[in-house]
Each structure stands twice: as C-alpha cells, then as structure tokens.
Amino acid sequence: MKLKKFFAGVLAAAMMLTVGATAAFAEGPAAITHNQALTATSEIPLYKTYEVKNGTAPAETFSFQVKYLQVIRQDKAATVPYNNETVINLTGKETAFGSMTKGSESKSFTVTPTELGLGNPTGTGKYLYEISENAGQTVATTYAAPVYMAVTVAHKVDAETNQIKTGEYEYYVTMFSSKEAALNATGDSATGKVNNTEAFTNTYGDGNLYTLTLDKTVQGSFGDLGETFTFVIEFTGDANKYANVVVETNQGTIKDADDNAVTSLALNTPYTITLGHKNKIVFNNLPRDISYKIYEKNTTADSKNGQYTVSVADTTMQNFTIDGKTVLGVTDSVNDANVTVSFVNTHEGTPDMGVVLDNAPYIAMLAIVAIGGVALMLNKRRRDEE
Fold it and tell me: How far, in Å, CA of 69 to CA of 66, rounded?
C-alpha cells in the first residue's frame, strides 16, 4: 500500500511538472475557457488581430465599446447591473498598430467583472454583454463584427462540504459570435463560441486595392527616343481615410518638392516625375475613390510640348492652370479597377530632300546634250588646228 501511494505521488508530481512546463513555454495570448473560475478583478483579455493582405496599411488605433444587453437568468436575490442596452463608459479599451506591410499582428485589451458592473453581486445570475469595435474611416480596411460575452456569477463553495461561502462569488465567461448563440447556449455543446484570442480580426487590402500605371511613348518620324519628359502627379483624398500611395515599379524618377527621391507619396502633395520613351511607373495601395491629377510640364493649350504633339491614349485631356500657365493633363478617380494613363508625344516633320528626284530624267538629258556639245566644240577646234 505504501508503495502504491509512493508511485501515485510521483505520478501526480510529474503531471504537475508537465502542466507547469507547458504553461511556461506556451506562446501567444491566454485563452479563457468557460469553466475557468475568475474573481471580480480578474482581467479578461480580448485580442485584436490586424491582418494586411496587400499594400501598406496606415497606423491606426482601434477602440471598443462595451454594452450591457440583458439578463439571461438570475436568482431572486440578485439585482441587474444595468438597465438593458446600457453602454458602459470604459476608458483605455483600445489597441494601437503602426503602419504595416503584409502580415499580421495581435494586441489585446482587458475587461474585468467589476468593470462590467458585477463587482458586488447579491445573488447568482448570467448576464449578456456586447463588445463591439468602433469602426474607423480607413478605406480598404474591413472592421470586425461584435462579440457577445456571457458572464455567469456563481456562489463560491467550500471544496469539502460544498457549502456556500456567503458573500463570495466566482465568475465564468463565454464568448459567442452572435446574440442568438449566447441566448441559446446549453453547456459544452453550445454552438457559435468564440475564443478570446480570436475575438476581433480586421483586414486591410483584401481585394480592394488597385494600381495606377503612368507610361510614356515617343513616336513620329523625328521623335527623340533619348529625350525625357517631366510630369507632375498628385493623389488627393482625406488623409484620415487613405494610406500613402506606394511606388511598386519605377523606370523613371520621382522626387518631392525638395528634390528628394521618394518611394511613398503623401496625399494632397505634388511630386515631379521624369520619364523617357517606353518608361513607366506603377503606383500601388490605391483604394476606391482616391483621386489623381497628372499633367505634363511645358505643354500648351494647343496640345504642344515644343515640337511634340501631346495626347493621352483613350482619354480626353484637360487644361490646368499652373503658376499662370496652361498645361495639359488628366484627372479622375479610382473606381474598382486598375488604371493606366499613357502619355504619347509625337514629333512629325518634313526632311530636307535637296534634289527633287522627279526631274532626274530631264536633268540627265540636259547633261547628255551638254556633254555632246562640249565634244563637238573640242572636235572642231582640233580640226581647225590641223
């Protein structure tokens, strides 16, 4: 019997060490299970994951709102924490993310039973809360749906006698994807449960970002394939809604007002571009409705840039007044499709030909006559000398 007790103790110790080691080396956020007893001040972590599918997301802070919805059940001695549909004024319930390029990151905020109005219960009960994200304005970001938290308040009992410890309570938390799932939940078989580590997920650039390609072609019999042309481009929109525009492909040059080369373009700011024949620049990270304006410098109202005629393929050009001068360009907005703006500069002309080749037969005949005349004169002179 003593030997059996010894081995039982060894086994129990081994199990404790195994659990401890697992907890020590576990990575990532802590999950809250429905059968985990909490205290009134236990912090319940709720995790926000921000996933960037494409492009570059701007820095953004996500804030959250907690609303008390209703009693699911309670005993007669209990009192409700709030009136139904009461928004609980909680501060600091937010997660801040910096600018991100493809990938994901998770951060958390916490709530406690006390913050939920359950710090001093007078009886047992089960209460339902809605925790929702305050949707931001960033275009191309999909904001998360609400989660529903059911909090059960139970008496704390003596482990040996099962007697109620008067005035002492334990709390159990379960989260659901819908209000209906929370109200209809029955024990472990409940459907629609949500893990607190996956409470909120936002995505950026999930099929809702587009590109703009600016290219240049030189044509015409006198087109100079080694010449470069200067453009100005400006993307416009609410800086609180749109991220910076990103340069994806660059076969020319892009510079800011201080003549610095750039790979990211701020909104409502003009940039200077230089392109030669068959050069292009591709801009990415463009959501729907962002506007753009592009014009070629040194152009005139009669579609000229020096000896070049300027046009944009499949587009009607517009006149812009810049620094008191009229220049030619295009302006539009992105509408659920990639955009291509193709500037074409054409230089035609008439080469200096010199001799008109249509008179060549007559000139040849006159030459023959002249040669013949000279020959006759020389022949006559020779005879006279003899």
Answer: 10
Question: What confidence tens digit (pLDDT) does each residue in 152-191 have?
Answer: 999 999 999 999 999 999 999 999 999 999 999 886 667 8
Q: Which residues pair with 51 in a beta bridge?
A: 104, 203
Q: Which residue segment(s) compose the domain that 333 sits in?
A: 209-346
Across residues 59-76, what is the average pLDDT? Answer: 95
Which residue's entry shows tokens 């804030």? 63
Three-state secondary structure call for residue 358: helix
Give the number of other Cβ atoms within 10 Å of residue 243's Cβ. 29
What is the C-alpha to C-alpha distance for residues 255 and 211, in angstroms, rounded to an integer?
Answer: 19
What is the domain count for the chain?
2
Q: Is the dihedral of CA 156, 149, 30, 113 positive or negative?
A: negative
CA 253 to CA 124: how far, in whole Å? 70
Q: How far apart are CA 373 and CA 364, in angstroms?
A: 14
Q: State the Cα–Cα distance between residues 217 and 279, nearest whole angstrom.
A: 8
In a domain, 370, yes or no: no
- The rounded distance, in Å, linking the Cα atoms of 145 and 206 is 16
Q: In the sheet that 318-322 helps form, which strands lie side by side, from edge to edge?
A: 253-255, 271-276, 228-236, 291-296, 325-333, 318-322
pTM score of the predicted model? 0.74
DSSP string covering 302-335, please? TSEETTEEEEETTB--EEEEETTEEEEEEEEE--
Helix (H, G, I), strand (E, B) or coil at 221: coil
Q: Does 185 share its domain with 39? A: yes
Name which of 370, 371, 375 is nearest 383 in CA terms.
375
**What confidence tens digit (pLDDT) does each residue in 1-44 have?**
444 444 344 334 443 333 333 333 233 445 565 568 999 999 99
Within 10 angstroms of residue 315's Cβ, the number of other Cβ atoms is 14
